[in-house]
Amino acid sequence: MAASSKKKSPSQISLNDSLSVLKGIGPQKAQRFEKLGIETFRDALSFYPREYEDFRNKKKIADLHNDDKAVVVSRVLLARLGAGFGKKRTLHLLTEDDTGRMEVLFFQGSFLIKQFAPGDEFCFFGKVKVENGRVTMFHPSYSRAEDASDDSILPVYPLTSGLSQKDVRLCTKSALLHADELGETLPKAAIDSAHICSNGYAFRNIHYPEGNDQYRAARYRLIYEELFCLDTALAISKDRGGLGRQGISITGGYAEDFVKSLPYELTGAQKRALYEILAD
Fold first, then answer.
1. What are phi and psi of 211, to 5 degrees?
2. Which of 1, 109, 171, 186 has the fewest Cβ atoms surrounding its Cβ within 10 A?
3. Secondary element (H or E) of residue 190
4. pLDDT value of position 248
């Protein structure tokens, strides 16, 4: 993918723009996003978090139990490199809060060592092992303590090598500024009867929930829409079969005309699905 010669701020981007036009996303990172199926900001809207860092429920080190997954705010005491060679070396942090100490272990984390200066406070989110009073958190996501408010809920996305949560959050936040431009994709009758939220509201609160109720409303909307589309497709298929009709033969020309008539651009995944249908 060629990089745009002119970079844009989040407010200037279009949902159909390549990620590489955004300040902070170069061509190499854009290629790494492609491995996740994300080519445009429209794709980023549908790249949902796998879990969330809930800063409303932070835990103290002394209150952690084995196999807990938690947000812990602690101060870095020491950072050192461990076993391995080059980029494969582990990074060990010794951290503490007012209740105890915790080791934070990053695999292949040698490149991170400059980010953790003694005395700096971080919010760490990950799974912990507690054994004989020793607390260890393995390869957590993290952010500076001053960057996370006590009522924030941050998304945690699936990643690929070379991308960080910060990179993905930058792209999803930029895309969400334009979520309302999508318009509505469900019939008004279905929206009214099911009492569901708007498209833009659903995307904003599936990525960055304002609270538990808002998250549930967003999730309900997205699941409802997926089932609505599936049910509609099955009904059409059943009706066609019951009347003894044959399937419609779709040629490339007709498909291209149909795609051009849509008021929006297909996502990368939708384009691949269309190519597979035409090739079948």
1. 180, 180
2. 1
3. helix 188-194
4. 57
Tokens 């040698």 found at: 110
C-alpha 147, offset from chain centre: 18
- What integer pLDDT is reported at residue 68 of this predicted model? 94
DSSP output for 19-37: GGGBTT--HHHHHHHHTTT
Q: Contact, 179 vs 45, CB < 8 A?
A: yes
177 contacts 170 by C-beta, under 8 angstroms: no
Answer for the pair 67, 128: CB distance below 8 angstroms, yes or no.
Answer: yes
Q: Which amino acid is present at 190? A: A
Helix 199-207 / helix 212-242 crossing angle, nearest 10 deg: 130
How far from the centroid of its chain's Cα atoms is residue 181's Cα? 20
Give CA–CA dist 231/174, Å, rounded.
33
Evaluate whether 157 touches 168 at the Cβ level (below 8 Å): yes
Distance CA 46, CA 209 (A): 15
3-state secondary structure 218-247: HHHHHHHHHHHHHHHHHHHHHHHHHCCCCC
Kindly state the tokens that stand for 186: 């469900």
pLDDT at residue number 4: 44
As averages over each run of 10 residues, the pLDDT of the chain (280 residues) reads 70 95 94 96 96 90 95 96 84 97 93 93 95 94 81 89 91 96 89 92 96 95 90 78 56 65 68 69
Q: What is the DSSP letter of 18?
A: B
Record the tokens describing residue 217, joined without a space: 């409303």
Torsion of CA 178, 184, 186, 192, to 10 degrees: 120
> 């991170």: which residue's tokens?
112
Among left, alpha and beta (phi > 0; psi -120 to 50; other), residue 43 is alpha
Q: Which tokens go with 60?
A: 């103290």
